[in-house]
Each structure stands twice: as structure tokens, then as C-alpha cells.
UniProtKB/TrEMBL annotation:
Record's protein name: PspC family transcriptional regulator
Organism per entry: Apibacter muscae
Record's keyword terms, sorted: Membrane, Transmembrane, Transmembrane helix
Membrane spanning stretches: 33-58
């Protein structure tokens, strides 16, 4: 168990700092970019949900459900 933990500590942590060293960017700017991208991704999904709900509401306004013959 200790070997697994040390492996993940050596390879899993400091990912952003390693990427920033590779591209020559400051780590704080890259962290901020990842935070903004995560908010944009979640916000985009929520916006798609709201647009879909709006179009379903508009569809219900135009297409009125009429009672069927069997409901009489």
C-alpha cells in the first residue's frame, strides 16, 4: 500500500507545475485557466438545459393538447 501511495505522490501531484514547466507558463496562470474552463464547461451545460426547457415551453404554447375521443 505504501508503494502505491508513493507512486501516486510522485506522479500524480504537481501536474500543473510540470505542465507549466513544459510550456513555459507560470503555474498560477495555468491553475486559473483550469478553474475558468471548469466553470465555463458547467455553465455551458446549464445554458443548454435552459435553452431546451425554453423551447419545450414554446412548443407547449403553440401545440395545444386536444382531448381524444376516448376521454369523453
Amino acid at each position: 500500500m505504501d508503494k502505491i501511495r508513493t507512486f501516486f505522490e510522485a506522479n500524480g501531484f504537481e501536474v500543473i507545475s510540470r505542465i507549466s514547466e513544459k510550456f513555459g507558463v507560470r503555474a498560477s496562470k495555468l491553475r486559473l485557466l483550469f478553474i475558468y474552463l471548469s466553470f465555463i464547461t458547467l455553465g455551458g451545460i446549464f445554458a443548454i438545459y435552459l435553452v431546451g426547457a425554453f423551447f419545450l415551453w414554446v412548443k407547449d404554447c403553440f401545440f395545444i393538447k386536444r382531448p381524444s375521443v376516448f376521454d369523453l
